[in-house]
Amino acid sequence: MTRYAHVTGWGMAVPDRILTNTDLEEMVDTTAEWIVSRTGIQERRIAAAHESTASLATEAACKALEPTNLDPVDVELIIVASATPEHFFPATACLVQDTIGAVNAGAFDLSAACTGFIFALNMAAQAIRSGSLDNAIVIGAEVLSRFVNWEDRNTCILFGDGAAAFVVQASDTPGGVLSCVMRSDGSGGDLLSLPAGGSRMPTTQDTLDRKLHTIQMNGREVFRFATREMAAATRQATQKAGLEISDINLVIPHQANRRIIEAAARGLRIPMDRMMMNIEKFGNTSSASIPLAVCEAMDEERIHPGDHLVLVGFGAGLTWGALVMEWIEPDRVVSTTRKIRRRFLLILARIRSFALRILRKIEGWIWGTSIKPK
User: Fold this and answer.
1) Mean pLDDT for the chain?
2) For burial by CB atoms within 10 Å, which of 168, 170, 306, 332 has the most?
3) Under CATH, domain 4-326 is a member of which superfamily?
4) 308 catalytic, yes or no?
């Protein structure tokens, strides 16, 4: 029997705080009108002190699970795509796994910058179609505001924070993820980077003084790269799915710049009403931007059963890719009993996590925490 990988749940989480272009006028030498004319961005969300990549990812994952027939204990895999993980390690996905109580799930992070969600969704779909697992949660989550140089007017106007998640499940109904192309070119790695903090350039007072722990970007070169590859990747993935561009109902691109999206539409020879765009509300949220746009497209009723969608993105690496899917509307009716059960399981997960931490401390007291030399 042929297996298909369908999106059965989706959810998003964005901070409450809104930073407008007018606010930025008071922070750096820019104007609201210039930002809109060059990028299309009017405002972006900024995480509060108590919010982080893991907390936003967890909230999005819980919302995505709500309408499905899965409880957290049924989840088999969690992938978090992020350029701003909670830590180098442990993986942010492991923190999400622990918080929601997905005790039977493997979990890992995927780093492909703004293309990360496409790569992660393809990995999950491939695993499901191969029969190695039946379901997964795929999350794009970022808190870019903590890696922005707020004195650099060329980059600080662009980025925002947020998260969104898909639940992907196996089905014998044709459709779901149909094809994907994934590409990279490391020779352009210096065009968009966060240079310091890794093994090549560890944290020192010098790297801090030079602000090398903040986003560095050659905007002109990235713009040229993006306008060239977005349309090409869309065509390649569409052809791989056995479709024509005319068969695509909606293209959902990475929300980096309105002019890049408009250039992609011209390259594909499709009208802008077949391109989903919400960059004016959230700015560039990197790996979260595509799933955030899908969630908003669903809220706006721009996606319908049987529609063919293309998710297409580009980012640091350089990376780029496109994924084609046939949207099949899932049954999103969940009983009150199941909703109550999930709330209980979420509370139980937090109790379990706390208890395991205490147990490890007790074991340390009993057995010792260091190995003594002979």
Assistant:
1) 95
2) 168
3) Thiolase/Chalcone synthase (3.40.47.10)
4) no
